[in-house]
Design brief:
By secondary structure, the protein is of the alpha+beta class. Helices cover 41% and strands 11% of the residues.
């Protein structure tokens, strides 16, 4: 029963010490509408994935202090992990929101002045997605933000403890549809994604570059023009890293994250 599930979630989520690390795993159990309703009950800061903010589309109203704080937290994180705003994808801003949305891309990226909370506007709506490659992730920095902004001071501080507690997770609804199509093709073509990664890694150096990935997947039959474009876009979504094996009810992609089915 969806109502009982939601009530149980509200009662127990704040009692889970690893919620800011693994709370993303609960998302597939709810529809998008139910998840938004839960967020309205518990607040945006509680629902913010401090340790795993990747690939979650955000729609933030800067007139709401809590949502403004979330954007500022992401900006601080982005400055730590990839200075220059490279981790912010599809950022659009409506500085005078009204009945008709007028979201426009930033001409020069998110303003550097917004690194100071008081310098951020208190009116406007912004949409963006945060994506960070595995090699740029700063888990200690994420832990610091979880404690200082979210109040999650009980999270482990040392890197080995954080890594052993976390399970990298993505929800298919939040993942690029191009990446989902390529993932489905690979799942049909190989027994697991570790085998797919090894096959596409033509240079056998434990990494995939753009040329290797696109040429190999098209040689397998992913040949239509629009699907080749999908493969190219999906390659940009999945950061290069070492392969991993799947387990349980999830697929594990080469960067080590699990994707809920």
């Amino acid at each position: 029963d969806r109502k009982l599930r939601a009530e149980a979630f509200v009662s127990f989520c704040l009692r889970c010490v690893d919620w800011p690390m693994n709370g993303k795993m609960c998302r597939p159990k709810f529809t998008e509408a139910d998840w938004l309703e839960l967020r309205s009950k518990l607040g945006c800061v509680v629902f913010f994935h401090f340790f795993q903010p990747e690939s979650v589309p955000l729609h933030l109203d800067l007139s709401v202090p809590e949502q403004k704080r979330i954007l500022h937290t992401l900006i601080r994180l982005g400055t730590t992990e990839n200075p220059g705003g490279g981790n912010f994808k599809g950022a659009k801003f409506d500085k005078n929101p009204g009945l008709t949305p007028n979201l426009e891309p930033f001409t020069s990226g998110i303003p550097l002045s917004w690194e100071a909370f008081d310098a951020m506007p208190s009116v406007g709506v912004i949409e963006l997605t945060y994506r960070c490659s595995q090699e740029d992730v700063r888990l200690r920095g994420r832990r610091k933000l979880a404690a200082s902004v979210g109040g999650w001071s009980a999270c482990p501080e040392d890197l080995p403890a954080i890594s052993s507690t976390m399970l990298w997770w993505s929800v298919l609804e939040d993942v690029s549809q191009d990446a989902v199509r390529v993932l489905a093709f690979l799942a049909r073509s190989f027994k697991d994604l570790e085998s797919a990664f090894a096959f596409c890694d033509v240079n056998k150096d434990g990494k995939l570059n753009h040329k290797e990935f696109v040429q190999t997947i098209t040689s397998l039959g992913f040949l239509k023009k629009e699907r080749k474009t999908a493969a190219e876009r999906a390659d940009r979504w999945v950061p290069p890293s070492s392969p991993g094996a799947g387990a349980g009810g999830a697929l594990k992609v080469p960067d080590g994250s699990a994707v809920a089915r």
